[in-house]
Amino acid sequence: MALLSVAPLAPRWCVHKSLVTSSKGKVVRRTISTSIRMCRITTESGEGVQRRIANHHSNLWDDNFIQSLSTPYGAISYHESAQKLIGEVKEMINSISVKDGELITPSNDLLMRLSIVDSIERLGIDRHFKSEIKSALDYVYSYWNEKGIGWGRDSVVADLNSTALGLRTLRLHGYPVSSDVLQHFKEQKGQFACSAIQTEGEIRSVLNLFRASQIAFPGEKVMEEAEVFSTIYLKEAILKLPVCGLSREISYVLEYGWHINLPRLEARNYIDVFGEDPIYLTPNMKTQKLLELAKLEFNMFHSLQQQELKLLSRWWKDSGFSQMTFPRHRHVEYYTLASCIDSEPQHSSFRLGFAKIFHLATVLDDIYDTFGTMDELELFTAAVKRWHPSATEWLPEYMKGVYMVLYETVNEMAGEAEKSQGRDTLNYGRNALEAYIDASMEEAKWIFSGFLPTFEEYLDNGKVSFGYGIGTLQPILTLGIPFPHHILQEIDFPSRLNDVASSILRLKGDIHTYQAERSRGEKSSCISCYMEENPESTEEDAINHINSMVDKLLKELNWEYLRPDSNVPITSKKHAFDILRAFYHLYKYRDGFSVANYEIKNLVMTTVIEPVPL
């Protein structure tokens, strides 16, 4: 059989093995023959070493390609044009805020303010207009009542479009608004009312109702009803609409909702929608300036992305990862996720740190799940807890390089965080890393022994071994946002926000990975543990049960993130929440960690590699 290539950091061996499977109290030893097809066998130093590998596809983004990328949008002339447009847009928003006019009147001023804020946020340019957005929303909220709002301050009757958009936008910004306002848009039979003929205005109202329903809190039955009604309505409407800005907007919103949506991907899509639909381009309001600014901002950040990506790719290559043949190489994909949730130019440390730490976590996952032997894993676990370069003395050759890159990266990120936080944060990073390693070690023991834990045991361990905690904490500490200890307690493990987010990702991830992992001899998953405890259930039953758990957890996550009674501002929780969205996006169609050459490759191209046409 073909051997793995020999390189300084390259692993050179693999194997299948016998597993001990616990089944209703009986211990049965059997060989997982399917794993033979996943492995190659060879020896090191004259001794046979048994290993498994998963045969993941190779890195999709060659360093030479990355280094060859170029763009003109870093030129000063583009920045000067952007600054001019920012001033013009602020002037436009302020003119709406201070006086009525031909287009802004007492009969439509609330909806117009909400629409401008919504467009600014969806176009990805809201960072320039924080005070203007707050003023607009304060104004809208001052007219909010138990029935919602109408188009304008003088409106006598509440309007579904204004109320749904207001509920969504105000809730996302921390205003205490109740979903009970939606009850007033039901007919006598308790169903949401709609006309026999679907007008464009009604379709837009229902579209905003669907968008609002995604921000549901636990126990909000009316939001669940709104989601069901609006989903059916919009799916029917899109079949009748011609291909246009509205139909594409509906398709995108139904496809990605809120939790799977990524801000930069939405901006790229909305630029096309906004630019082609006349309803958004009212010449007298100069809203076309929003589109011009959005395109410039997208491309100027695209220029910064290329610079950062070149640094990351060179780090990956110089660290020796390019010579490793067994792990997944997803550094470019992780960078893409980071830049899709944070496009603030000053947050380079966050984006690069996020990509590095999650790439390392993925390499470690492949070592603990498949490639490492138990003896090696015990040595590596001890070395991480010792946290000193001398700990590499007892490690096998391929682990030495991984350990040192891990050591240097975690320490480097702690140094960046110290500049931002004004204190040493290394212990936070080390504690998160040790928790991740311990959980990974526990899973390795299950794999080597064939032990099947209970569903609760598996999930408690699995939400740590997913790596959300290790990948979230250190990057956000570099943001320049103050994170005193009491705020970190609301974000870091074992906070409820962290716990819920980690549970969602483990549950959703297992739905897409359990079959491939089972073929490698990894028995434990949410699906297998649930079926073991419920012998009458099928795989479909298990998946439906887990999806139901995820749906409930997503509402709880919304609450933990947006709860108006929290003493932690939403801005301090935003990145932790958006990192959940980034990874949830990876599981939209498949295991995007392992199979990155379809939708995720397209995401890289659309949001990082290609600029938007001006």
UniProtKB/TrEMBL annotation:
<dbReference type="InterPro" id="IPR050148">
    <property type="entry name" value="Terpene_synthase-like"/>
</dbReference>
<feature type="domain" description="Terpene synthase metal-binding">
    <location>
        <begin position="317"/>
        <end position="554"/>
    </location>
</feature>
<dbReference type="InterPro" id="IPR005630">
    <property type="entry name" value="Terpene_synthase_metal-bd"/>
</dbReference>
<comment type="similarity">
    <text>Belongs to the terpene synthase family. Tpsd subfamily.</text>
</comment>
<dbReference type="InterPro" id="IPR036965">
    <property type="entry name" value="Terpene_synth_N_sf"/>
</dbReference>
<dbReference type="InterPro" id="IPR034741">
    <property type="entry name" value="Terpene_cyclase-like_1_C"/>
</dbReference>
<dbReference type="GO" id="GO:0016102">
    <property type="term" value="P:diterpenoid biosynthetic process"/>
</dbReference>
<protein>
    <submittedName>
        <fullName>2-methyl-3-buten-2-ol synthase</fullName>
    </submittedName>
</protein>
<dbReference type="InterPro" id="IPR008930">
    <property type="entry name" value="Terpenoid_cyclase/PrenylTrfase"/>
</dbReference>
<dbReference type="InterPro" id="IPR044814">
    <property type="entry name" value="Terpene_cyclase_plant_C1"/>
</dbReference>
<feature type="domain" description="Terpene synthase N-terminal">
    <location>
        <begin position="60"/>
        <end position="253"/>
    </location>
</feature>
<comment type="pathway">
    <text>Terpene metabolism; oleoresin biosynthesis.</text>
</comment>
<dbReference type="Pfam" id="PF01397">
    <property type="entry name" value="Terpene_synth"/>
</dbReference>
<dbReference type="GO" id="GO:0000287">
    <property type="term" value="F:magnesium ion binding"/>
</dbReference>
<dbReference type="GO" id="GO:0010333">
    <property type="term" value="F:terpene synthase activity"/>
</dbReference>
<keyword id="KW-0460">Magnesium</keyword>
<keyword id="KW-0479">Metal-binding</keyword>
<dbReference type="InterPro" id="IPR001906">
    <property type="entry name" value="Terpene_synth_N"/>
</dbReference>
<dbReference type="InterPro" id="IPR008949">
    <property type="entry name" value="Isoprenoid_synthase_dom_sf"/>
</dbReference>
<dbReference type="Pfam" id="PF03936">
    <property type="entry name" value="Terpene_synth_C"/>
</dbReference>
<keyword id="KW-0456">Lyase</keyword>
